[in-house]
Amino acid sequence: MDEPIRISRRSALKQAAAIAAAGAAGLGTRRVSAADIAAIESPVEHGRINQCIVQWCFAEYWGIEEMCEIAKALGAPALELIPADYFPILHEHGVSCPIAQIDMEGDPPFLYGFNNPMYHERLIAATNEAIGLAIQYDCPRVICF
């Protein structure tokens, strides 16, 4: 039986500091594009797990069109938590949306939620609009906070 590798706390901290310094120096910070991902041989081996990409996590880096291409290149069938306004673009690219968010016109819906009666009228209108678009584009769920 092999001996377990023992790493001291000091050694682990030194390694973590070196990795952080390399990141701060700009190593490995190149922007990844859909073409970069498409150039990789398909990461999907068995196709048993259907992972989705949450759009807003990457919105700073990729537009919706590019995100659809990246999802397809990675074998992800869907973009989640995307405003319903983007459903036509998803549909065009053959990407689905299993759960949509409501559009609060730039305001985060989790800050302007149903827990405050002051926002009810605005939220009900945004939720009804999202549900209507979800029905039109076969999105099974709409989330509101």
The biggest beta sheet, please?
A: 3 strands, parallel
Q: How much strand content do the residues show? A: 5-15%
**Backbone CA Rg:** 21 Å
Shape: extended
Number of separate helices: 6
Q: State the low-pLDDT regions, or none.
A: none
Q: Name the strands of the widest sheet in spatial order.
A: 3-4-5
Structural class: mainly alpha
Determine the fraction of residues in helical runs and give it as a percent range.
40-55%
- How many runs of DSSP E, i.e. beta strands? 5
- Our measurement of the CA-to-CA distance between the termini, rounded to an integer number of angstroms, reads 52 Å
Order of helices and strands: HHEHHEEHEHE
Whole-number mean pLDDT = 78
Name the descriptors:
145 residues; mainly alpha; three-stranded parallel sheet; two-stranded parallel sheet; 6 helices
